[in-house]
């Protein structure tokens, strides 16, 4: 599935919303407190927002056989849709991908191919399989149709909460963040779009700071769905020109946010808690929406978590200081995005101990290029 070279528009997002009706749910907004709402994509069919982009792509470009690279959630979505539409599916997964998610993919009738390296090697293998078999490649994020489908998350938010001040979006491959950026143009007033990345996988922040797409070595962050190594060709220009801020969060911060969500009854996976971790750190001067991108967390027995959730009012009013009270701070004045993000990254280098970022070597890499830390990135 080749890209057109033209990024999706708001009209494309609206077309996607109409196209995927019936295969995708309109997920609710849950109140975490009086000023913070959670977009509950963990309640989506297939357990994550990924079904939106996959459905839009697979319905618009029907094929008898498809292949996709995935950390898990996109693979589950493609496999689920393949079973429903009678399409043969092969999913390629990188080293360190969730065994539980791989089991779910197989249970849906799809084949699974695993590679020894990271996300970049995974995506290359998926491209090779597509070329060799004639299967249609359905990227997890780097395609106009996938971005437009993901953008329906933002479209729903902006239709229901037009007065939102800031929306926090997890950033992996960048499809969801780019889609929300496009959907934000539906508003007649400005909204701050903030992308949140794991600290060891900041491919978009590094690229924006350097002014060019930059590839990072593989990451082993707990947020397994956000281990992308380089910006996608389609999301990159959208994010570069529209996103208001890109912030990084440590695994400890992700675990903290995950605990808040799970104590509130929200069955998020680590990747689904990243946006909240960013919101707790960055704050918002007004009403904020946090996208809980997925809930395919793996329980201790290897099964996929299916925790039941309570009603929308997740935290009792008597709890005193809100778990998200730090969201109510005023943001500082806007500066140049690239300069601000570069300054933030320099500060983070001083604040955080980078020695806990694992070194990962891709199989067959004799030069050891991927045996570098996330900060030692290279432009592509």
From TrEMBL:
List GO molecular-function terms, semicolon-separated: ATP binding; L-serine ammonia-lyase activity; magnesium ion binding; pyridoxal phosphate binding; serine racemase activity; threonine racemase activity
* Ranges that cross the membrane: none
Going by the UniProt record, its keywords in alphabetical order are: Pyridoxal phosphate
* Domain called Tryptophan synthase beta chain-like PALP: residue spans: 21-294
Compositional bias (Polar residues):
319-328
The record's listing under SUPFAM superfamilies reads: Tryptophan synthase beta subunit-like PLP-dependent enzymes (SSF53686)
Question: Pfam families annotated for this entry?
Answer: PALP (PF00291)
Q: Locations of Basic and acidic residues compositional bias?
A: 331-380
Identify this protein by name: Threonine dehydratase
Species the sequence originates in: Micromonospora matsumotoense
């Amino acid at each position: 599935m080749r890209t057109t070279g033209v990024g999706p528009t708001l009209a494309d997002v609206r077309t996607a919303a109409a196209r995927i009706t019936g295969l995708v749910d309109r997920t609710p907004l849950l109140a975490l407190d009086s000023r913070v709402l959670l977009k509950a994509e963990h309640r989506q069919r297939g357990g994550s927002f990924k079904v939106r982009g996959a459905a839009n792509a697979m319905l618009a470009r029907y094929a008898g056989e498809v292949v996709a690279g995935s950390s898990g959630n996109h693979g589950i979505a493609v496999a689920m849709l393949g079973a429903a539409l009678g399409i043969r599916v092969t999913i390629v997964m990188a080293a360190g991908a969730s065994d539980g998610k791989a089991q779910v993919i197989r249970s849906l009738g799809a084949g699974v191919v695993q590679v020894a390296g990271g996300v970049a090697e995974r995506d290359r293998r998926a491209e090779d399989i597509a070329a060799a078999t004639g299967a249609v490649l359905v990227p997890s994020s780097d395609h106009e149709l996938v971005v437009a489908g993901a953008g329906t998350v933002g479209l729903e938010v902006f239709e229901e909460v037009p007065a939102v001040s800031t929306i926090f979006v997890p950033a992996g491959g960048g499809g969801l963040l780019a889609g929300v950026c496009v959907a934000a143009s539906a508003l007649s007033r400005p909204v701050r779009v903030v992308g949140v990345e794991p600290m060891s996988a900041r491919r978009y922040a590094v690229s924006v700071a350097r002014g060019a797409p930059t590839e990072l070595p593989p990451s082993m962050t707990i947020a397994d769905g956000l281990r992308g190594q380089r910006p996608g060709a389609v999301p990159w220009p959208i994010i570069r020109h529209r996103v208001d801020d890109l912030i990084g969060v440590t695994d400890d911060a992700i675990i903290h946010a995950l605990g808040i969500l799970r104590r509130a009854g929200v069955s998020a996976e680590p990747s689904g808690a990243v946006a909240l971790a960013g919101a707790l750190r960055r704050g918002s001067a007004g009403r904020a929406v946090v996208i809980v991108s997925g809930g395919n967390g793996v329980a201790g027995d290897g099964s996929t978590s299916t925790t039941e959730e309570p009603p929308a009012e997740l935290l009792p009013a008597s709890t005193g200081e809100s778990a998200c009270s730090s969201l109510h701070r005023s943001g500082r004045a806007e500066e140049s995005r690239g300069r601000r993000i570069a300054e933030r990254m320099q500060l983070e280098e001083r604040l955080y101990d980078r020695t806990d970022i694992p070194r990962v070597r891709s199989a067959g890499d004799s030069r050891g290029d991927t045996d570098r830390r996330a900060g030692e990135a290279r432009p592509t």
